[in-house]
Specification:
By secondary structure, the protein is of the alpha/beta class. The chain has two domains: 166 residues, Leucine Aminopeptidase, subunit E, domain 1 (3-Layer(aba) Sandwich); 312 residues, Zn peptidases (Aminopeptidase, 3-Layer(aba) Sandwich). 38% of the residues lie in helices and 19% in strands. The strands form four sheets. An eight-stranded mixed sheet has the order 7-8-10-9-13-17-14-15, sandwiched between helices. The structure holds ligand BES, manganese (II) ion and zinc ion. Zinc ion binds next to strand 9. The site of zinc ion has 5 residues, from strand 9.
Length: 522
């Protein structure tokens, strides 16, 4: 999708559609009504007002109305997009609205669009959100369709002219914002593709190849370790899970190192993603309904790969690493059994009480490995527990970790990136649930507080390093389309991770500037 800054007015410029986001007060605003609305309405001799009324369009959030202009405007259709009340506005509201708008535009086979940016205080964030919403709203996974023409090969909006709000002039920073938004949305779509791909064609080997191609494209270093090397690394938990499958496990390590030698020495950010390419449950086999979506059990690693793709281009002044232990969880004559005891890389022993609690086993070994780099922080993302969906619903991710500062940074990054993440406690009261009679611990507790016991398990492998665990079992994959989300994979986590790295960059740069100032004064 190509973006440019339009020079004409929304009421005069030419395109197939005009995407016009409106607040609930805009239609009745006598003092400062948005000129895009007023002038277009005038040219249409009040038709917009009339049709909006007839269709019950009041600018409420989630409202979308498509209006034919019958050649009386530069655009063939105006798409009205409700933003709700100004008081509740944030960039995510616009991201969702533009996503809806692009879907409506594609439905009427539009190829070019004008996108009116609303007059809001958070202009930069809104511009970014609008571009992300447009690209992500256009996303379709139609690789495997051969027949349905509406789904595959149908025209889509590929040229968008961004129109700035009344009285705002374009500047260089805005172009950079659009470029960033395109990079982020592109990487999110890349993550969605990885997750949507069926498990048969997204094996650990193929995931590693995808990581390799991406690393080459953006200039990241990559190491892929095979079973032999994973054995040398004594990752007994990872190997235990991988044993039941004929697919070879892969340990994938991506790294970004700043060019500047001093910056390269800074403590790193380590990102770890769950990469179970298919989770059948193993011998603790899942029922069919529960297994159906389990190609998505590598969504954590997809988020890490998507984020690393952007980070390579952001080039922050500190190293960033991505780790994923990719394997399948399958039942077979080779599979790990209930009652088996696995020996982890850290030497801790684990009694297997449920082979479907496999994610924590692989993550445990990979977290321990990541921790050996002595990173400043570790963030992991994992479709870890169904219990997290029970707790927070399908749209919200759970965040766990005892380091309040890091937790705050992650939650703030999520909030500003428009991803819903809420903290849950790693409460001591549930620690005993993982006590084993035969080993140091067992891998699964009972149902109650299942996400918390999973977090307790992971915590055993990160030592004292500030760490946040994100359980993305819910929002990584949705069963209903919404805003800029299509049914299926969402690419959840990419935007939060990128925002986290951007904030960390700003903080470091600000601290450096402070140092330079005090240096001068001294
Ligand atoms: N991959 C699943 C968690 C999951 C469930 C993700 C639904 C997305 C949607 C995970 O490996 C799993 O099976 N967890 C078990 C843990 C239990 C056996 C302790 C669960 O949640 O039931
Ligand atoms: Mn499982
Ligand atoms: Zn799983």
């Amino acid at each position: 999708m190509h973006f440019s800054f339009g020079t004409g007015h929304a009421s005069a410029a030419k395109a197939d559609v005009l995407l016009l986001p409106l607040f609930d007060t805009d239609l009745s605003d006598k003092k400062h009504p948005p000129s895009a609305w007023v002038k277009s309405d005038k040219k249409l001799r009040g038709l917009l007002t009339k049709l909006a009324q007839q269709e019950g369009f009041k600018g409420k959030g989630e409202q979308t109305v498509v209006i034919q202009t019958h050649g009386k405007l530069g655009v063939a259709r105006v798409i009205l997009l409700g933003l709700g009340t100004r008081a509740k506005f944030n960039a995510e509201v616009l991201r969702l609205a533009i996503g809806r708008g692009i879907k409506a535009a594609n439905k009427v086979k539009a190829k070019t669009a004008l996108l009116q940016i609303p007059g809001v205080r958070e202009l930069d964030a809104s511009l970014q959100a609008a571009v992300e919403g447009a690209i992500l709203g256009s996303y379709r996974y139609d690789k495997w369709r051969t027949t349905n023409k509406d789904e595959k090969g149908a025209p889509r909006v590929d040229k968008v002219q961004l129109l700035l709000p009344d009285g705002v002039k374009k500047d260089k920073a805005m172009e950079a914002t659009v470029a960033l938004a395109r990079t982020i949305a592109g990487a999110t779509a890349f993550a969605r593709d990885l997750v949507n791909e069926p498990a048969g064609t997204m094996t650990p080997t193929i995931l590693a190849e995808q990581a390799k191609a991406m690393a080459k494209e953006v200039g990241l270093a990559l190491h892929v370790f095979d079973r032999k090397k994973i054995e040398e690394l004594k990752m007994g938990m990872f190997l235990g899970v991988a044993r039941g499958s004929v697919e070879e496990p892969k340990l994938i390590h991506l790294s970004y190192t700043p060019k500047d030698a001093e910056a390269a020495k800074r403590p790193a950010v380590a990102l770890v993603g769950k990469a179970i390419t298919f989770d059948s449950g193993g011998l603790s086999l899942k029922p069919s309904e529960g297994m159906l979506d389990m190609k998505t059990d590598m969504a954590g690693s997809a988020a890490v790969l998507g984020a690393m793709k952007v980070i390579a281009q952001l080039a922050p002044p500190f190293p960033v690493h991505g780790f994923m232990g990719a394997c399948e969880n399958m039942p077979s004559g080779h599979a790990y059994r209930l009652g088996d005891v696995l020996v982890s890389r850290l030497g801790k022993t684990v009694e297997i009480t449920n082979t479907d609690a496999e994610g924590r086993l692989v993550l445990g070994d990979v977290l321990a490995y990541a921790n050996e780099l002595k990173p400043a922080v570790i963030i992991d993302l994992a479709t870890l527990t169904g219990a997290c969906i029970v707790a927070l619903g399908p749209w919200v991710a759970g965040a766990f970790g005892d380091d309040d500062q890091l937790m705050w940074n992650v939650l703030e990054s999520a909030r500003s990136a428009g991803e819903d993440i809420w903290r849950l406690p790693i409460t001591d009261t549930l620690k005993d649930v993982l006590k084993s009679d035969v080993a140091d611990m067992k891998n699964a507790g009972d149902r109650m507080g299942g996400s918390i016991t999973a977090a307790h398990f992971l915590k055993e492998f990160v030592g004292d390093t500030p760490w946040v665990h994100l359980d993305i079992a819910g929002p990584s994959n949705v069963s209903k389309e919404k805003g800029y989300l299509a049914k299926g994979a969402t690419g959840f986590g990419v935007r939060t991770l990128v925002e986290f790295v951007r904030r960390r960059t700003s903080e470091l740069n600000a601290a450096d500037a402070d140092d330079a100032m005090t240096g001068e004064e001294a």
